[in-house]
């Protein structure tokens, strides 16, 4: 029975390495992410199925949840072991840990789950989404390096590429409209461009990237494709569609409770290992380490990410359809008249929907603010707050908040209207209860001026 369980559900017992009094352990499981193999040779079909197939760690005393390895440093039984660990002969693939800025078992466990979610060989979790993005760029580009990036990106990423990387590291970026594949092709300089960077679904304009085609173009010129999948976990799986690396702001949907800032880099084992290198690794040397207590909490939330995404997406589609019928200018890739609807449909994993964010263009900032004020302070539909993926609806006027790093010309190029309200649709309460609050607010707005 135990063997059957082990085979079918990929369950392993906790580490008993220390009990023998020797550092050489018999248990050599090469499913740690530093090895090239996935946890089992099961075919990746769907993110939820992959998560269910991922190895399940029990607690030290047989608890259904793993124990938290809340240690900054780790002991060895024999002095020689320390030398061998630093020489790279013994590592986390054989359950040898040095120090938690390098590897920590609880953080590594979350990394394994993130790798399963995105269907990558490996993943490593970081203290924020921005540290995941900056570390990956610094690993893939050297001084003099070049990036081609979408002109529609989260404001912080845009600022990193526009201001910080050129000043601090002499890494420059050409921003392009990634919907125009010819322009992307022209912007890539073979032999000089290191990375093609874009968001699977862009923040805040909700344009959808043609991941297979963009990856093909980049690969023809030897360029690594990095995709920020923060807006569409479960919905899209960029590496399965041809990209090389996925970055996440875990602070959003994956956390789901708006209480944690965290990130992840999911990609080939060779890349993740290089980022952890003692001499040249951006994660190891810049040190945006995740706390194991945080990693534990996040690992407990991944099993219900799929259920949450389905409900976010279902409600976003329903509200987007109803708001469109009321005459509002709604942007949502799940609507048939969205220019990227056919594209997202062709790429999306089955049964998750088209994302939990919708935008409504109120044309002016004044009208956007008035709508958000009514929605929060009169009908209690949601909160005026940045971020997304929370169980409550969160609303912000992107041009003056999360995209304020872009100047007016950049905002125009990115398609961010001054009155664009981004709504991350929550799932608390019933769909109809929340719709009545939204509907009431919209009626109140119309009393002053029709849409
Ligand atoms: C698409 C996207 N990527 C990355 C980030 C940065 O993530 P974090 O806030 O976790 O550093 C954000 C934050 O808003 C985002 O929206």
TrEMBL record:
GO terms for biological process: transsulfuration. Residues 1-27 are annotated as: Disordered. GO terms for cellular component: cytoplasm. SUPFAM superfamilies: PLP-dependent transferases. Keywords: Pyridoxal phosphate. Residues 1-13 have a biased composition (Polar residues). Its cofactor is pyridoxal 5'-phosphate. Belongs to the trans-sulfuration enzymes family. This is Methionine gamma-lyase.
């Amino acid at each position: 029975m135990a063997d059957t369980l082990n085979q079918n559900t990929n369950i392993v017992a906790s580490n008993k390495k220390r009990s023998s009094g020797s550092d050489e352990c018999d248990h050599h499981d090469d499913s740690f992410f530093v090895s090239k193999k996935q946890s089992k040779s099961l075919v990746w079909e769907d993110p939820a199925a992959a998560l269910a197939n991922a190895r399940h760690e029990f607690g030290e005393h047989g608890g259904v949840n793993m124990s938290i390895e809340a240690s900054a440093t780790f002991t060895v039984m024999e002095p020689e072991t320390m030398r061998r660990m630093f020489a790279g002969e013994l590592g986390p693939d054989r359950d040898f840990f040095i120090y938690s800025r390098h590897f920590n078992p609880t953080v590594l466990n979350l990394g394994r789950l993130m790798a399963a979610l995105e269907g990558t060989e490996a993943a490593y979790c970081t203290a924020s989404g921005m540290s995941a993005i900056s570390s990956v760029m610094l690993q893939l580009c050297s001084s003099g390096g070049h990036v081609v990036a979408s002109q529609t990106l989260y404001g912080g990423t845009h600022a990193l590429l526009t201001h910080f990387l050129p000043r601090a590291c002499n890494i420059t970026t050409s921003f392009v409209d990634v919907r125009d594949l010819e322009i992307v092709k022209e912007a890539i300089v073979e032999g000089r461009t290191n990375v093609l960077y874009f968001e699977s679904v862009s923040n805040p304009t909700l344009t959808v990237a043609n991941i297979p085609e963009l990856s093909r173009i980049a690969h023809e010129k030897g360029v690594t494709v990095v995709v920020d999948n923060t807006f569409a976990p479960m919905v899209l799986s960029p590496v399965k569609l041809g990209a090389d690396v996925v970055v996440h702001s875990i602070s959003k949907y994956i956390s789901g409770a708006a209480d944690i800032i965290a990130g992840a880099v999911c990609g080939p084992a060779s890349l993740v290992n290089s980022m952890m290198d003692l001499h040249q690794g951006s994660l190891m040397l810049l040190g945006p380490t995740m706390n194991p207590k945080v990693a534990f909490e996040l690992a407990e939330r991944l099993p219900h990410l799929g259920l949450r995404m389905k409900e976010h997406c279902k409600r976003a589609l329903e509200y987007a359809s109803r708001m469109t019928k009321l005459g509002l200018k709604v942007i949502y890739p799940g609507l048939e008249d969205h220019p990227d609807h056919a594209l997202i449909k062709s790429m999306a994993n089955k049964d998750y929907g088209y994302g939990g964010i919708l935008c409504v263009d109120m044309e002016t900032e004044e009208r956007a603010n008035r709508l958000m004020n009514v929605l929060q302070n009169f009908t209690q539909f949601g909160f005026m707050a940045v971020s997304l993926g929370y169980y409550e609806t969160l609303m912000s006027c992107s041009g003056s908040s999360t995209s304020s790093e872009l100047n007016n010309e950049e905002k125009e190029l990115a398609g961010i209207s001054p009155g664009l309200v981004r709504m991350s649709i929550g799932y608390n309460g019933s769909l109809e209860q929340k719709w009545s609050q939204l509907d009431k607010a919209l009626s109140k707005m119309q009393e002053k001026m029709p849409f």
